[in-house]
């Protein structure tokens, strides 16, 4: 089968597209022929050697894809051949076929197709746990999201708005700003400038920060007793935090990793159903994903890594 792989960590030039061995499934696994593969910021960290990646020779990146079940192991009862599934936490996804533990496969409801599922799976489940496990905001609270028109940002803002919150955020271009405003965000501030920060300091119950380099700014935006929900560093590493300084204003810092919120079949099912319900109720609009052929993985990494993307970047095998 064809796959996107690399032999050593480094910049995007380490990526190659070529033939590798098709995986063999175990008794509790299913074989999925991938339809759309999600590219995520974590895949960039992994390619650079800055984040956990499963040992494999060669390394095959990627943990998220949708596709068709083409074979099932003898102990599998939850899926059948021919069903469409999504997975968001299974290694070696940058390939035409992936061996998926049955408990990690999420069967899609009829009204969610494989392109939509791969477009919103990992980022949507992230937005869901950030909002409902960490943020836990109550209606009418004011919250701020850095990089609000990124993949997670778009989904998180719409979930929070549907939950009754007043949402503000930052973005780097007029196009990204217009998108967020169209989703119901109150005001969008220019993310690569800082002269607006002082005017809204101390106002927010929660700041959701996945940019990282903005952590001090996020803390400044909080009111006393507020919290930063820190979930990534797309813009660079955060500053070191002094808990004593936080305590003096009763501010808190929460963090979380999606993997720790997807620990069983039931949890994946419940969380994905909650996420899909926002689509079923018409509460979330998404921009068309940008689709690269799996063979053009290098260009896809460049597009995501340099902040050009709006919304999801997908890789399409066999194109
Ligand atoms: N904790 C978890 O479990 C978990 C799970 C999934 C993702 N994440 C994290 O969530 C964050 C967002 O992920 P995503 O998939 O939504 O990524 P994304 O679509 O690329 O969005 C990231 C946003 O960060 C902003 N940004 C600011 N400075 C940047 C820079 N120097 N380079 C690139 N982007 C920059 C960009 O917004 P502007 O250009 O508009 O400023 C961009 O839209 C990432 O840090 C990712 O690692 C965490």
TrEMBL record:
This protein's record includes keyword Heme: no
Top-level taxon of the source organism: Bacteria
Classification via SMART domains: PKS_ER
Keywords: NADP, Oxidoreductase
Family matches, as InterPro entries: ADH-like_C, ADH-like_N, ER, GroES-like_sf, NAD(P)-bd_dom_sf, QOR-like
Domain Enoyl reductase (ER): from-to ranges: 10-315
Residues passing through the membrane, by range: none
Gene Ontology terms for molecular function: mRNA 3'-UTR AU-rich region binding; NADPH binding; quinone reductase (NADPH) activity
Listed name of the protein: Enoyl reductase (ER) domain-containing protein
